[in-house]
Amino acid sequence: MPSDPFFHPVSGFDLPRFAGIPTFMRLPYVPVDHPRHSDVQIGVVGVPWDSGTTNRPGPRHAPRQLRDASTMIRAQHAVTGMRPFETANCADLGDVGPNPADILDSMERITSFYDDLVKANIRPLTAGGDHLTSLPILRALGKEHPLGMIHFDSHTDLFDSYFGGTMYTHGTPFRRAVEEGLLDPKRVIQIGIRGSMYDAEDRDFAKQVGIRIVTIEEFFDRGIPDVMAEAREIVGTAPTYVSYDIDFVDPTFAPGTGTPEVGGPNSFQAIQVCRELTGMNIVGADMVEVSPPFDASGGTAFLGVSIMFEMLCAMLAET
User: What pTM value is reported for the model?
Assistant: First the structure.
């Protein structure tokens, strides 16, 4: 069914991109108390929170910058011809208000927000936030049944703890998600892993529970179509979450992030992997770790929202 025209974005032919109040991809702003909230099918959500960061902070500012950059997104995919905003009712649902002084309280607030989206049958596309943001989202989306996950990153985020027992950081979310039964580890693939290491604890855990790690060396040796074919086989047709850390991309193309790692994909390869998600059973996706203080040109944010658009199209593509 075609989407309701109410949910179509503002065109640059009608209002210049530098004018008006920026929303994600110029979509209507539909908060929870809006009369059309129940009609939303895909909700774009901001989570301005980075209390899990252990080095360079800043992703709490990302949703605002990503919204501004997203005014450059147009209505039609250049390669497939898909017009996602005419395929489903999409809207900007606003931000989850975090508690910047309390990690546990913030996670409860985030999970509560996404619990409501699950009840309303709204699939979320999230702009974080550091990578700890994914855990409270998964607590809502994976509450009834564990999910598969395709994870693009230069880090596994599978560590047990930091600083002698801190269990909730941006380096631990998927360890917790497996332990809590939110992810089925045998249906999880992590792509692009690289960089120097503290030790092998995270990779040892992955082997122990059955998580598939594709290092950056393997990624380049095999090529995107082959790696993503394996990803499709691993997650199958069951519900799957996609988590995309912008530091998957080489810092030459995405310098605005807290923990950059050299030797990654370029910006075209960064969107190519998303095009290979088409037809998967994606119940939610996120873009995390964009850090505006380190993004002087704004190019990282624009790449981030371009990837979000690609993920949106993949979420709506027919199998």
Answer: 0.97
